[in-house]
Queue: 2 jobs
Job 1
Amino acid sequence: MLVGRKYRLALTPERRDQAEEYGSVCRTVWNIGLERRREYRRRGKLIGYVQQARELAESKADHPWLAAPSHVLRVTGRGGLGASRSAKRQPA
């Protein structure tokens, strides 16, 4: 039996600002990664998660605005792939 639960997260103002900043960075990383995958597909090639994660790690050294923790950014890069597969297995 599936049971639904709702939780409300109460953040301090500092943590709320940090969460918004991380969310903004993650959105940007997702959009850049999506565009990179589209570029590769247009050329008839594929770019995998490992290669994109490597590029992201290299980019963090050059771009200080990528201030979110690495594990948050890696999960963001993987999110679209893993979430869509698991969502298909779940009944609606």
Note: The longest helix spans residues 13-42.
Job 2
Amino acid sequence: MNPKPTVSKPRGRRPSSGDVDVRDRMLDIATGLFAERGIAATTVAQIADAAGVTSAMVHYYFTNREQLLDAIVEERLMQVIAFVWRPADARADDDPFALVDELVARFFDVTERMPWLPPLWLREIVNEGGQLRERMLERIPIEHIRQFADEIRHAQHAGVVNPGIEPLYLFNSIIALVMLPLATSKLWHSARGLPPLDRRALQRHIGALLGFGLRPPPPAPTPSPAARRARTARSAP
């Protein structure tokens, strides 16, 4: 899920495996600090100190902050998108409930492997003025989202999914249900009397909410003849 990125040559020489490892480590550390503190509040010196290198070394691999942000988007966030939208398991082809369960499971998988993702998403992508917002708006996987919505819509037409669900909004609902609690888990932990957020319990909770909400509502009960006569009598002038 997280292959080594393809690295461009540093100026003047061929990169060694050590170069790739150092660059990759710096990118991981910068991403983590940006998620924890925010991009605007994180300096190159702080990244260098956390990585155990000099600021000059950071600038050697990432000429400026813009290049560093581009690398985070292309080599970290685009990996997330590719993982979430990889082809679905065969069992989910004709089962909207399995499709939604698998999508939720992928979000929990990727956020466990990349714990910086939810806070970075909230700080720098969702938040107005976030420094990754414009970069990610250009990369929203619109076709994947539309295809997902089409599959849900098809299931609605077949009577399998609740017709009150808006297919295009369902993916946003899944993101919000998974990412927002994880992004705010530290705030949750600091609240007096509340237990630490339990990832397994959260995933089970989300599965129950979505599974119940996706089911078509039960048909309205047919009134008995006596009830129909009583209703007619009440409505008579």
Note: The longest helix spans residues 17-37.
